[in-house]
Design brief:
With 276 residues, this protein is an alpha+beta fold. It contains eight helices and twelve strands. The chain has one domain: q2cbj1_9rhob like domain (Jelly Rolls, Sandwich). Pfam families: PhyH (PF05721).
């Protein structure tokens, strides 16, 4: 059975949904067996990252982020070259989009509510010209339930200028009511993909279960967006040679003889303590 499953692709729906809500989902894009292998790779990468300084960065109590190289995932090509992923990237970011980040978030049992935030300040192209220059794709490694601390997103907030947000990322608590009114919790299942603007105000919620909820992240930029400066993707020559030519066009990263484990650059200090 193929890892990637056929799903409907409607580029106009993709465009209007992301422009309106800041997030869109695709159900049943992969088989559950494919996701089970992804979970194995994520768990192995997490153990390696936790064994060295700077390998995993805290995003709140019992919540971590790890950035990895593409070839740490046996299913990287399946994901990055999935027809729905390609369609979303081309529709929102244009044909010359670039993959700049591969990583994963892991909220463990005891993770608390994060403060409402966006992942980086809104660029001028977005808050002045209403043009999105980046996307984050998420693939859950589990069937998400209410007690596992589901992702919560305040739909439509990707257009907020955020000039009054702390560091351009964290709104004042006095504004939380507005985000809570727009908040939607997401309950993806194994095999689903979502795509969102990282500028859409969001948070991870309290994990009251005994289970971890790892989520893979694929970060993609429009040309010139500059988020690649926060990341250190690299590939070996043998891995590069194995990639489809169509996918190579969207990976402009160093080709090396030997991979160096990534020390995370994109720390978000405001998430370390969780919501006060």
């Amino acid at each position: 059975m193929a890892a990637a499953l056929d799903v409907p692709i409607d580029c106009e729906l993709i465009r209007t949904t992301i422009e309106t809500d800041g997030i869109i989902g695709c159900k049943g894009a992969f088989t559950r067996d494919w996701v089970a292998r992804l979970r194995e790779d994520v768990d192995a990468a997490f153990e390696e990252a936790r064994s060295r300084e700077g390998g995993a960065v805290g995003r709140g109590p019992n919540r971590y982020y790890v950035e990895i190289h593409p070839e740490a995932l046996r299913g990287f090509v399946d994901l990055a070259d999935h027809p729905w992923v390609r369609a979303v990237c081309e529709t929102v970011l244009g044909p010359d989009y670039l993959i700049v980040e591969v990583g994963f978030d892991v909220p463990f049992a005891g993770a608390v509510n994060q403060p409402w935030h966006r992942d980086f300040p809104s660029p001028r192209e977005t808050h002045e010209d209403r043009r999105l220059t980046s996307l984050a794709f998420n693939v859950t490694c589990v069937d998400t339930t209410e007690d596992m601390g589901p992702f919560e997103v305040a739909v439509g907030t990707h257009w907020d200028p955020g000039t009054d947000f702390e560091h351009g990322m964290f709104p004042e608590k006095s504004e939380y009511g507005r985000f809570e009114e727009r908040a939607v919790r997401k309950y993806p299942r194994m095999g689903d993909i979502s795509a969102r603007s990282a500028l859409t105000v969001h948070r991870g919620t309290k994990n009251e279960s005994r289970l971890a909820r790892p989520v893979l992240v694929l970060g993609v930029d429009a040309p010139g967006a500059g988020n690649d400066e926060k990341h250190d993707l690299a590939v070996t020559r043998s891995f590069w040679d194995s990639l489809p030519e169509r996918l190579r066009a969207h990976l402009r990263c160093p080709i090396v003889d030997e991979l160096t484990p990534i020390t995370q650059k994109h720390t978000i200090e405001g998430l370390v303590m969780g919501e006060a």
